[in-house]
Amino acid sequence: MTHCAGAAERFPQALIDALGRARKLAVLTGAGISAESGVPTFRDAQTGLWARYDPQDLATPEAFRRDPKLVWEWYAWRRTLVAAARPNPGHFALAQMQVSFPGFALITQNVDGLHARAGSRDVVELHGNIARIVCSAGCGVVEAFDPDAAPPRCPKCAAWLRPDVVWFGEPLPAAALESARRAAADCEIFFSIGTSALVYPAADLPRVAREAGALLVEINPDQTPLSALADFALRGPAGVVLPALLEATERAGKA
Ligand code: BV8
Ligand code: ZN
């Protein structure tokens, strides 16, 4: 069921009723929820200097081995974008939902840390966090390094430092993936918000939830491969739809 939702629009009553009864929600977010904070999505044309690179070519161990300086500078540019960004009403609505619903799991593919900055707790970061810097040879998180080196070297073993994100071809953190799969299997309503549903294994999670009997709600201005599977496809920007949905749920006497 597709629904063009926005602040002025009414939501399907069946969705409001389901939210009124639900105790356990699981939410998966992608780059789209940070679009209204000014953080380019993964499949947006990168702006300026980076317009000629495909993020999927740069977010790989091969690219880092081939040209560590280019990859390090791409992430340094993205870190400045993220540091200048502010959480938007979509992030804040999810932080509010975590308070309103007894069971609420927030799983993100994003590496920008904006959910935590909006007040969400226990965020499951499937693809890591761009603000954390680690040794590429496994010494762990490195707090202090030469700001002018691109990339800097590990103070312990002199290997290149890298952002603590999951590159294509790398496994996701096992604990994060396990907790995301458990939340998806256990929830009554699963939200897929601002993701093109193309990157695995994150893109498996809505199907895990659906097969376990959950209602599937998609919030995205565009169609995705998941839309046909969704019980409710809310067509609109997350920063508008989520606050409106939360308000409609509160008006109906829940949350
Ligand atoms: C792995 C961190 C195995 C880095 C990222 C099947 C099973 C397993 C793996 C695979 C598989 N098939 C293929 C693979 C390989 C690959 C993969 O999935 N490839 C895809 C492209 C086919 N997967 C992997 O490599 C994963 N690793 O499986 O390893 C393994 C196991 C053991 C041992 C060794 C190996 C790793 C995947 C993680 C890659 N890292 N990010 C970084 O950020 O630099 S993924 C990257 O894409 C970002 O995290 C991003 O979040 C993610 C997904 O993109 P989206 O978030 O969906 O963003 P996108 O731009 O695509 O879409 C935005 C959406 O928002 C759009 O739909 C748009 O309409 C919408 N939107 C726009 N504005 C708004 C909005 N929505 C709401 N409101 C708005 N205002
Ligand atoms: Zn090291």
Query: Quick one: biggest sheet?
Result: 7 strands, parallel
> If you average the pLDDT, what whole number results?
93
Class from helix and strand fractions: alpha/beta
CATH superfamily placement of the largest domain: TPP-binding domain
Strand content: 15-25%
Radius of gyration from the CA trace? Answer: 19 Å
Low-confidence stretches: none
Structurally, the number of domains stands at: 2
Termini separation comes to 24 Å
The hetero molecules present are: ligand BV8, zinc ion
* Number of H- or I-type helical stretches: 9
Query: Element order, helices and strands?
Result: EHEHHHHEHEEEHEHEEH
CATH architecture of the largest domain: 3-Layer(aba) Sandwich
The CATH class designation of the largest domain is: Alpha Beta
How helix-rich are the residues, as a percent range?
25-40%
Number of strands: 9
CATH topology of the largest domain: Rossmann fold
What gross morphology would you assign? elongated
Order of strands, widest sheet: 1-9-8-7-2-3-4
Topology of this protein?
Layout: E1 2-3, H1 13-21, E2 24-29, H2 55-58, H3 61-66, H4 68-84, H5 89-100, E3 103-108, H6 114-117, E4 124-125, E5 128-135, E6 161-165, H7 174-186, E7 189-193, H8 205-211, E8 215-219, E9 232-234, H9 238-251
Parallel strand pairs: 1-9, 2-3, 2-7, 3-4, 7-8, 8-9
Antiparallel strand pairs: 5-6
This protein binds ligand BV8 and zinc ion.
Residues 30-33, 35-36, 41-43, 59, 109-111, 127, 165-171, 194-196, 198-201, 219-222, 224, 237-239 line the site of ligand BV8.
